[in-house]
Write a structure and sequence with these properties.
7-stranded beta/alpha barrel, single chain, globular, 9 helices, alpha/beta, about 30% helix
Length: about 375
């Protein structure tokens, strides 16, 4: 579990040192913006159509019953983000996902697995898929000013911008540019540790500038700043990456905390403390902390944990109690809401993140 840590270890220790030495978070009320971005693959492991439908039906029946029991500091239910894979498109499945979203418990974005691709083909693939999602299903969002269809993105197999050393599962060195050209408002792929696709930049909200001739342009970038509007590059919103010293392998080695919600990871308070300490925020606004987790929500073992064994219920309960104990404001948000808050902080630096949920992008439905 400690493989490939040399990619991000130096950045981690720098951040820990800055967090311990800085007193900036001691001022004002702390806000926690929380969401789960799901690599939502109904046909995972190449199952048949019947199994794919039963997986999504399980979410339709069981997830809503859990989510409706939980509210944040403003009375909002959890917002699960279904990053649906283009290569698994099926209208019936998406209509079931849409029902969950229409009931107020989530939003849908784009996920993509591809290999040995070209920039031209990738561009056509993304444009066609976002059009189908928007026009045929009423999903995704639009820019309030331009009415352009927008989408959040997670790359399959973590290989954003052709970042795997062996060149597999992408093939497009200028993928950052293609994403921007096709209406991607932000990427939510990272962290990918312990994969070797992991960036050296961790626990950050930043803009990646594409070098179209080389892979992994998102390895570094320019931080988003409150009160400073940033136009260049693709916005990257990362989840937590750290060592959990409260959970050690063989009682010795601290485990990597990479924000995955799964059957083998648990949802204890020790993880909440690490997510908090990762301190992911827009520079200049440390009072607003972004906690973006991820899951593979259609895998049976994880669904058993989420639903039958009470994993999601426990996660939301622990999170709500943790925020109440620490007198934090908890915000259940979507990926789109996170983006809107970031853009609002850049342009207006509003004191209240809840006023910015729909700042730039509004849902089509």
């Amino acid at each position: 579990m400690l493989r490939n840590t040399e990619i991000w270890l130096l950045s981690y220790f720098r951040q820990i040192g800055k967090f311990l030495l800085s007193g900036e978070r001691k001022q004002g009320k702390l806000h926690i913006l929380f969401t789960i971005c799901d690599h939502y693959e109904p046909y995972w492991n190449k199952v048949d159509r019947s199994t794919a439908y039963s997986r999504v039906m399980r979410w339709l029946k069981q997830y809503q019953a859990i989510a409706e029991k939980h509210t944040d500091s403003f009375g909002r239910n959890p917002k699960h983000c279904f990053f649906y894979p283009e290569e698994e498109y099926e209208a019936g499945l998406l209509e079931m996902v849409k029902e969950i979203c229409d009931n107020g418990f989530g939003e849908t974005e784009i996920h993509l697995h591809h290999d040995n691709d070209t920039a031209d083909n990738l561009r056509l693939t993304l444009l066609d898929f976002k059009r189908r999602l928007a026009e045929e299903h009423g999903l995704l969002s639009v820019d309030r000013d331009t009415n352009e269809i927008k989408y959040g993105f997670i790359h399959g197999n973590w290989a954003l911008d052709n970042s795997r050393p062996d060149g597999k599962w992408c093939g497009v060195n200028n993928e950052i540019t293609v994403l921007q050209d096709t209406g991607c408002y932000a990427d939510f792929t990272m962290p990918s540790a312990p994969s070797d696709t992991q960036t050296s930049t961790i626990n950050s909200i930043y803009y990646a500038i594409d070098d179209p001739n080389t892979p992994k342009s998102h390895d570094r970038g320019r931080n988003a700043f409150a009160g400073e509007s940033q136009r260049d590059g693709l916005l990257c919103i990362q989840g937590p990456l750290a060592f959990n010293t409260h959970n050690r392998k063989f009682g010795i080695l601290p485990r990597i905390e990479n924000g995955r919600v799964a059957a083998n990871s648990g949802v204890g308070v020790d993880r909440l403390k690490v997510w908090d300490r990762c301190n992911i925020h827009v520079a200049g606004r440390p009072d607003i902390v972004f906690v973006k987790l991820y899951s593979h929500g259609t895998q049976e073992k994880d669904m058993d944990f989420f639903f039958d064994k009470g994993g999601l219920d426990a996660l939301f309960t622990n999170l709500e109690n943790y925020c109440q104990k620490n007198e934090y404001c908890l915000h259940y948000v979507s990926a789109r809401n996170m983006y809107n808050v970031i853009k609002g902080l850049e342009r207006e630096n509003s004191p209240n993140p809840q006023d910015l949920y729909d700042y730039e992008l509004k849902l089509i439905r």
